[in-house]
Amino acid sequence: MDWMFDEVEKKAAEDIYSARSWLLVTKCIFPRNFRVLFEAYKLEKSEMNASQCASLIVEMFRSFPDEYLLNKELELMVIPPPGDKDSQQFLSSIFDSLQPDMQQNILMYTAGRQIDINSRCKLTLTAMRKIPRDTMKYGIPLTEKLLECEKIEAPSTALNKYRKLLVCDVIPVICECTAVELSHKQYYKWLQKAIEFFVAVHTSPRKLLTEAIGKSSIKWTDLEALRAKIGMQCSWEPYSEKNLPLVDRMKFIKDMHRLSRTDVSGNINKRQIFYTSLLLLLESSIEFSKLLDPAFCDSVPGNASHIIYLQPFNNNEPGSTPVSLSSLKESLHDCFQVARTSWSILQTNESFSKDFNHLVKRWKMERWAWFQLLMSLRDIFEKDYKACVLRLNRLLEQNRIDHYPHVNIRCLTILATVYYTTNQKALSCRCIIECLTKLKSNQLLQNMHHSRIDSIVFSDTSDVNPMILMPLNQSNLLPSWIFIFVTSLMQNVQSSACTDETLGHILVLSQHGWPQWKEVCGNILDIVSRKTAFSYPIFFDYIVVGDILEEISLLWNSNEKKTITLHRGTFASQQRVTRGVNKGTEEEFNNMITTQMNTGESGLEDLLVEFILKQESSLMDCLLAADGAGPMET
Fold it and tell me: Of 182, 222, 248, 492, which residue has the fewest beta carbons closer than 10 angstroms?
């Protein structure tokens, strides 16, 4: 036989027809021999004879499907390697010369031999597209195989290559086939899998995303396209046009939900309302979070990070609206309204609520910080402050290790203003102190420290203090925090619990934004002037505003006899001051005032933050001391 093949090879170089004759003789002598057929295939391949190659492929595949050389050739045909384009093109022409049934058989046979799940999936999908009537035959086992692999290799996350193949490749092909007969329940299960995967994709850090599914662009429009395909299989009413924005899709489903309440004939598909509302809720919530902070899913906050929280005071002063924030507000407002409306629809009846709560538990949505933060804002809009506090405290407990420090900053900032609004002043101030501690101690948050930019009212509610949108940094948040501290401490001023420490702390804090708190400062100084003794030994550590220093200087140098302690250390800690007496002490005091005047107010913000953190214990004692205290004795 080897001699005959040698002759074929010699003849091929001289006369192809002679070579074919020799092969025909060889085949007659050895009628059921794979090598004869494969040599004939090689000969026709060298002559670029696609139709003859296809005939030989069919003959070999039917008689010798397990031969290594044949399987290697089949793989080259259906999984062309990168490289020689001419060779790839010719192999494709051989495959195209086969009958569709044979193409499908070869594809499925080759797919079954693949260890790599991506290759197996790709070949099976190609076979399903070749002959759609066999979609059920091959598609359903493929979905089961992918779910089985996911259960074994990635049981705790939807972010894996098996789920990606299932959601982005397999299910869409199955849904495109009108011959497929599946229950609506099965389609809804797949839609749940798809929604969970898309949420994971859009809320995972970039590095984790690349490691799990590789570099790929997976957009919300892909999920919407899949929703439409599933909807077609489940007799859903389609949108009026493709690629509708969030607001228009929400209007469509809101109108459908309204009509469903009076639909006694059952013509409106309530499952369409449920799943579309669920999708809109999650998509709008994620887009809302991305608008607030493009890097919200990473451990490091982005440079363009913003925050929305309940402003503790009602600011009606007119002012220009920053253009960038105005544009951002509009986009945020749309997303927020879609999320609120979707949530409301999902809570309208027992069936929706039951199904939604089931998914909440299964997907562990209580651990989705981005979602819980948005829901806390919804709670505030609904004035459900109790739910907001429970939600945020639970989130803080889950995030106590500080993997995502900016989540803690957001939680504490919102909690501080909610506690203040519900008259829990000490808890409010405790949140502020904790927030400042995290800002100061975490290097990742240093980029959030400065850049004072005007805020913009996010809500249009007139009967409560407004929700405020602003860049997330210490400089922007400090005015609200100082307001909470000052007004909370001022409640103690007319009580028997009022101490010199309380008065002194108010003086220090009232320096912020001077002369904003000038009237408050004046009231405190009036109270001090009526006292026979006043002690605040850290006065010169933190008072730098000239107007306050001048008033204290006048009080010190007045004719009245008072015991005033304003400093500590190497100097005398307490002085009995009478005009014209103890001249050395007066000079010492005036020199200290002059030194403070020269210090200036340039670093006042950092000084006040240092004060709050260092005097934490004293501040909290002053806030808590008023509990149960009566009016101040005169």
Answer: 248
Number of domains forming the structure of the chain: 4
Do 366 and 445 belong together in one domain? yes
**Exposed e or buried b per residue across 607-618, where buried means at least 16 C-beta atoms within 10 angstroms of its C-beta:** bbbebbeebbee
Evaluate whether residue 426 is within a structural domain: yes
Confidence of residue 370 (pLDDT cuts 50, 70, 90): very high
- Is residue 374 domain-shared with residue 340, that is, in the same domain? yes
Q: State whether residue 105 is helix, strand or coil.
A: helix
Is the separation of the CB atoms in 396 and 412 below 8 Å? Answer: yes
97 DSSP assignment:
T
Pairing type for strands 306-310 and 467-471 reads antiparallel
Contacts (Cβ under 8 Å, ≥6 apart) of 208: 159
Are 302 and 178 contained in the same domain? Answer: no
What is the model's pLDDT at position 372? 95
Whether residues 15 and 120 fall in one domain: no
**Rounded to the nearest 10 degrees, how much is the dihedral formed by the CA atoms of 468, 472, 474, 477?**
10
259 and 194 together in one domain: no
Rounded Cα distance, 363 and 357, in Å: 10
The token pair that represents 14 in the structure block: 């001289």
Q: How far is CA 146 from CA 108, 115, 116, 255, in A?
A: 16, 13, 12, 38
CA-CA-CA-CA torsion sign (112, 118, 123, 129): positive
CA distances from 261 to 239, 273, 395 (A): 20, 12, 36
Q: Which runs of E-coded beta strand occur in 162-259?
A: none
Q: Which two tokens stand for residue 567?
A: 């400093």
- In single-letter form, the type of residue at position 150 comes to E
Looking at the domain assignment, is residue 327 inside a domain? yes
Domain boundary among 67, 98, 129: 98
* Residues of the domain holding 397: 242-490
* Torsion angle, alpha carbons of 31, 34, 39, 45, to 10: 110
Sequence-distant (6+) residues with CB within 8 A of 173 are 125, 128, 129, 135, 139
CA 586 → CA 526, 539, 548, 582, 591, distances in Å? 22, 16, 18, 7, 8
Phi, psi (deg, nearest 5) at residue 118? -65, -45
Tell me which residue of 582, 263, 626 sits closest to 426, measured CA to CA.
626
Name the strands in the sheet holding 533-535, side by side, starting at the edge strand that comes first in the sequence: 533-535, 562-565, 575-577
Task: For residues 506 and 566, state if they share a domain.
Answer: yes
| Buried/exposed code over 200-214 (b: 16+ C-beta within 10 A; e: otherwise) | bbbbbeeeebeebbe
Biggest alpha carbon distance in the chain? Answer: 136
Q: Let me know if residue 105 belongs to a domain.
A: no
Name the residue with tokens 């070999």.
60
> Degrees (nearest 5) of the Cα angle 14, 18, 24?
140
Mean residue pLDDT of the chain comes to 84
| Per-residue pLDDT reduced to its tens digit, 291-345 | 988 877 765 555 668 888 888 876 544 444 555 678 888 899 999 999 999 999 9
Higher-scoring residue by pLDDT: 146, 405: 146
**475 in a structural domain:** yes
Residue 230: which of 263, 262, 193 has the closest Cα?
Answer: 193
Same domain, 508 and 630: yes
pTM of the model: 0.85
Picking from 235, 262, 291, the residue at the C-terminal end of a domain is 235
Crossing angle, helix 323-346 and helix 246-260, to 10 degrees? 30
Amino acid at position 198, single letter:
F
Determine the pLDDT at residue 596. 75
Instruction: Dump pLDDT digits (tens) for 175-209.
Output: 998 878 899 999 999 999 999 999 999 999 888 99
